Structure formats: structure tokens, C-alpha cells
Description:
By secondary structure, this protein is mostly helical. It has one helix at 2-154. It is rod-shaped and about 215 Å long. The termini are far apart.
Amino acid sequence: MPKEIANVQADEIRLRNMRTQMQNRHNSEVREIQERNAVEVGRAQENHTEQLGAIKNAYDVQISKEAETLEARLAQVRENNDERVAAEKKAGEEETLKIQKANQAKIEEFRKNGEARLETVRKELQLQAEALHQREKEDSRRAGLLAKTQKKTEA
């Protein structure tokens, strides 16, 4: 039995050594795996950071291109609106001039008609005044003749 105990003890020591070696190997493998994982995580983070930067740059470039496009379109719209406003202003001014000319022509026509009527009325008044004057002369001559004839008949 002592031999068996020695065998069991030897087996137990051998098993402990194997267990210690396995634990050491396991710990070593775990450290290696952790180191590899740390390196891979670092690479993944770097790749992620680079990709994120590239995406941000692409996004900024796209936004700046869209902003340039929108600014160009806005400038074109403003230019078109300025042209339209200028055209409408010119058309309005032309219409105003046309209306002013038409009103001026009407005023001239009214003035001519008024002057013609005034001249006609003046002539009529002149004729009436001359006719009255003639009648007055005739009436006064008749009155003078009548007075002479009455004096002759009285005398």
C-alpha cells in the first residue's frame, strides 16, 4: 500500500503540475486573445474614426455643393425677378406716359372747344351789342324825329 500511496501521491503531484501547466497555458492564451482583441478593437476604432471622418468630409462637401447650387439658383431667381420688376416698371411708366398723353390731348381738345365756344359767344354778344346799338340809334333818331314833328305841330 505504501507503493500505492506513493503512486497516488505521484499521480496527484503530476495532476497538479498538469493543472498548473494548463492554467498557465490557459492564462497565456487568454492574455494573447485579450491582446489580439485589444489590437483588433484599436484597429476597428481607428477604422471607425477614419470612416466617420470620411463620411463627415463627404457630407460637408455634399452640403457645400448643395449650398453653392442653391446660392446659384437664388442668384438666378433674384436676377429673373429684378428683370421682371424692371420690365413691369417700364411697362407701368409707358402706360403712365400713354395715359398722360391721352389726358393732355383731352385737355387740349376741351381747351380748343372751350375757346371756340367762348369765341362764338363773344361774336354773338358782339353782334347783339351792335344790333342793340343800331336799335338804340334808330330809336333815338325816331325819338328825335318824333320830337321835331311834335314841335312843328305845336308851333
